[in-house]
Structure formats: C-alpha cells, structure tokens
C-alpha cells in the first residue's frame, strides 16, 4: 500500500500538471486574444463574468466542499447533490435571462444582453464539472482531471483564436469559454466512471447543506466583494480601463492559482482524512505555507519588477496602462499561501461556522476600504485590495492559534527566510530597468539573474523549504519511475 506521502506527492504531481498545463495553455491563448482584440472587449466580458461567477456560487452551494469533507460520502450523496444543483442552475439561468436587458441598460452596453444569455449556459455544464471534481478530489484521481482539462483547453483555445481571427470580437471570448466548459464536461463523462443515479435523498442534501451553507455564504461574500470592484469600474470608468485592470490581474492570478491552487486542492482531502489529529493537521498546514511561499514570493516580486518590459513584449504597447495594475496585484497575490492554507485547515476541521464568521468580518472591512478608496481613483481601488489582503491574512490565521496551536507570528517566522531573500533578489533584478537597451534583452537578463540569485541565496542560507522541495521532487521522480 502506498504511503500517505507518496499518495499526496502523486496527487500533487498530477494536480500541478493539470494546473500548469491548462493554465499555461490558457495563458498563451489569452495573450494571443489580447493581441487580436481590443481592451474594451475584455472589459465587456469582465462585466458579464461577474454575474456568471455569482450564479456559479449558488450552483455549487458549498456542496462540492461538503462532499469532499464528509468522510463517508457515497452514491446517494453525489447523486442527490447533482440533481439539486441542476435545479438551482435552471432557476438561475431563467433569472439571468430575464434580467439581461436591465443589466445592459445600467452599463449602457447593448451587447451585454446576448453575451450574458449565451455565457450563462455554462452554469449547466458547471453542475457536472463541480460534482465530477468533487469525486476526483475525494478519490485522489487527479491524473484523470489532467487529461480532460488539457484536452478541453486546447479545443476551446483553438476555436477562440480562430473566431478572433475571423473578426468576431467579443464573441471570440464567449466561444472560448463556452466551448471549454462543454469540452471538459464531455471528456469527464468518458474518463471518470461516476454517473448520477436515479436516487435522491432530501435527508442527505440537508445534512450536506448544514455544513455547506456556511461555505455558500462565505463564497458568495467573497465573489461579490471581489467582483464589486469590476462592477464599479465598469460603471464609473470605460470598458477599456476595466480591460486594463483585468489584464493586469491576469499574470499574477494565473501563476498563483497554478502553484498554490494545486497544493490546496490536494491539501483539503488530505487534511480532512486527519481532521481528528490536530498535530498532523498543523504539520501539513505548516508545510503547505512554507513550501508555497518559497515558490510564490520570488515569482510575484520578480513579476512586479519586470512588468513593463514583459507587457511590451507579450501584449504590445497598447496594454502598457495595465502595468501598474499588474504590479499591485503581484503584491496582493503573494499573500495567497497564508490565506488558503489557514482557510483549508478550518474547513478540514469541519468548522465552516468559523469560516463564515471570518468571511463576514473580512468583507465588512473590505467594503469600508473600498468605499474610502473610490474617490481617489481606479489605482486607489486596486491598492485598497492589497491593504485588505494584508489585514485578511491576520484574520484568516487567528482561529488556527486555538485550533492547531499555529499562530500568525509562528507562520511568519516560518516564511520569513523566503521573504527576505526574495527582497534581495527583487532589488538586484530591479536595477536592470535602468539599463538603456531593448526590452527583450532587459527581460532576459532579469529572468536569468533573478533565478540564479534566488537559488544561490537559498543554498547559501540553507533554507529548509528549499531542501524539502528538492527532496520531494526526487521522491516524486523516483515514485513516477517505479509506477
């Protein structure tokens, strides 16, 4: 029987492959589309995705996490959740369909009506994906998710780019997202054995919802808070400015979701299996924070430093206004390992009540900061998100001082070595911006020097996280070779 570490490493390997593969291809697709399409077209899609994202929260209703967290979830649980989620998706689609003209009038964008109605169809495919993903995570079957996700992103990416070349404008983005959801649903049906059965238990739904409803409210608060900025910017400023804002977030978001998201996806089912062993949970949470911070800190700081030459080369000069947003979001996303590891630990311990309370407190503070920042302009709005995330990192860590005996101070002591050598690396790389040479040369020098500097400093100061990462990679290669 495989050891826990081998199972976790194998799952993490395939989750990283799935994330890096799909996000990497998606990243390339988005770059190509950004070069072909105008910023205002991305702004239009950003507004539409606010309403679709909020609806998706209701469709999942916290059931996805509840299915993973519940130790003995079975076919009755999965099938019951599937049918109730499908019913919710239908009701929400009707609501969005009827509301589309009013939303369009509010934003003075006639194109929003058809785009919103078409893109909202992804809610139905999202029901399948949500349950299938829960089944995959519950059974640590991330290799199957890798295959389906990669296939879907390639199919949708190719069709989206073709549509953009044909001059379909914003519809190229709609096609890309809709086809992606359809493709992954179809592929999962062939790859994963689970199918909904003709069984439904209101009692099981009630039990799962008793845990999941708190996560639903928490997720809803989170999505509304995040997307509130999009709604305000889209209404107050131009679609182009909203496009710059969202493209600035794209780079750091893709990278962090790829690395940190992979770790956390494997972390929840792992923690849930040890929810009765506080010491073991603490050890796993600590390892997650230390390892993900060691990888994410240098990438985010490095990305912020090379932002201008990177945007010029990759997106062209028409996207230069997105540079300040990119730099701001890099700082914000650098804190993600602390947020997610602490929150996953709370979820795994079955304390969704604490999770909800934290979300309410954070969102109240966030809205206050947002209200204060609005009069100072769009850049102040983005900076307000950084301030809120710094405060939120304290809030998220606070309960685990009691639950796991893992305080915020102890967490920062663990990640401080990575943080300090990152600052040194960032300072050295930043100096290259003052050299008067071609942008591609500056970017090349910065990447090479940054990577070498960080690795050398990690070895010189013998960072434990660096040694652990190397050892884990060796074990993973050994395990993959044997299997």
Total beta strand runs:
0
Relative strand content: under 5%
Rg, alpha carbons: 22 Å
Oligomerization status of the protein chains: single chain
Largest sheet: none
Question: Separation of termini?
Answer: 13 Å
Ranges where pLDDT stays below 50 over 5 or more residues in a row are: none
The general outline is globular
Task: Characterize the structure shown.
This protein is mainly alpha-helical and 483 residues long. The chain has a domain of 243 residues. The protein is built from 20 helices and no strands. It is globular. It starts with a helix and ends with a helix. The mean pLDDT is 83. Keywords: Cell membrane, Membrane, Transmembrane, Transmembrane helix. This is Lipopolysaccharide biosynthesis protein. It is found in: Cell membrane. It comes from Senegalia massiliensis. It is a multi-pass membrane protein.
Primary descriptors:
single chain, 483 residues, mainly alpha, 20 helices, globular
Summarize the structure.
The chain is an all-alpha fold.
How would the blueprint of this fold be written?
Layout: H1 4-36, H2 39-60, H3 63-69, H4 75-107, H5 112-119, H6 122-138, H7 142-165, H8 170-191, H9 202-236, H10 239-273, H11 278-305, H12 307-314, H13 323-333, H14 336-348, H15 352-373, H16 378-397, H17 399-403, H18 408-430, H19 439-460, H20 464-482
Helix pairs in contact: 1-7, 1-10, 1-20, 2-4, 2-5, 2-6, 2-9, 2-10, 3-6, 3-9, 4-5, 4-6, 4-9, 6-8, 7-8, 9-10, 9-15, 10-11, 10-13, 10-14, 11-13, 11-14, 11-18, 11-20, 12-19, 13-16, 14-16, 15-16, 18-19
């Amino acid at each position: 029987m495989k050891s826990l570490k081998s199972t976790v490493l194998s799952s993490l390997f395939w989750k990283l492959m799935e994330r890096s593969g799909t996000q990497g291809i998606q990243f390339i697709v988005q770059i190509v589309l950004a070069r072909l399409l105008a910023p205002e077209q991305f702004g239009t899609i950003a507004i539409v995705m606010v309403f679709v994202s909020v609806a998706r929260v209701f469709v999942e209703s916290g059931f996805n996490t509840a299915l993973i967290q519940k130790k003995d979830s079975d076919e009755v649980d999965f099938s019951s959740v599937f049918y109730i989620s499908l019913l919710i998706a239908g009701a929400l689609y009707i609501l969005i369909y009827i509301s589309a003209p009013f939303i369009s009038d509010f934003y003075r964008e006639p194109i929003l009506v058809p785009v919103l109605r078409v893109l909202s169809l992804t809610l139905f495919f999202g029901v399948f994906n949500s349950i299938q993903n829960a089944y995959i995570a519950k059974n640590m079957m991330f290799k199957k998710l890798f295959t389906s996700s990669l296939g879907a992103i390639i199919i949708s990416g190719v069709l989206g780019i073709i549509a953009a070349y044909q001059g379909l404008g914003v519809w190229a983005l709609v096609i890309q997202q809709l086809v992606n959801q359809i493709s992954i649903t179809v592929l999962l049906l062939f790859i994963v054995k689970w199918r909904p059965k003709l069984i439904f238990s209101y009692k099981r739904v009630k039990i799962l919802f008793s845990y999941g409803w708190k996560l639903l409210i928490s997720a809803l608060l989170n999505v509304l808070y995040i997307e509130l900025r999009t709604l305000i910017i889209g209404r107050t400023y131009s679609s182009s400015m909203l496009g710059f804002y969202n493209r600035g977030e794209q780079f750091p978001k893709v990278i962090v979701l790829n690395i940190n998201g992979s770790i956390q996806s494997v972390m929840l089912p792992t923690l849930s299996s040890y929810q009765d062993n506080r010491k073991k949970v603490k050890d796993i949470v600590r390892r997650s924070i230390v390892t993900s911070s060691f990888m994410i800190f240098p990438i985010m700081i490095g990305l912020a430093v090379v932002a201008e030459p990177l945007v010029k080369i990759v997106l062209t000069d028409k996207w230069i206004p997105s540079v300040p947003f990119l730099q701001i979001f890099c700082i914000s996303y650098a804190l993600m390992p602390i947020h997610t590891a602490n929150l996953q630990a709370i979820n795994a311990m079955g304390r969704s009540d604490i999770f909800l309370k934290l979300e309410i407190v954070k969102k109240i503070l966030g809205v206050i900061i947002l209200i204060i920042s609005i009069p100072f302009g769009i850049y102040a709005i983005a900076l307000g998100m950084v301030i809120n995330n710094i405060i939120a990192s304290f809030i998220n860590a606070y309960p685990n001082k009691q639950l796991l005996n893992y305080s915020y101070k102890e967490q920062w002591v663990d990640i401080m070595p990575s943080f300090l050598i990152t600052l040194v690396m960032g300072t050295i790389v930043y100096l290259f911006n003052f050299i008067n040479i071609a942008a591609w040369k500056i970017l090349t020098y910065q990447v090479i020097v940054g990577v070498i500097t960080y690795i050398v400093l990690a070895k010189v100061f013998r960072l434990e996280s660096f040694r652990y990462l190397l050892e884990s990679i060796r074990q993973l290669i050994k395990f993959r070779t044997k299997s």
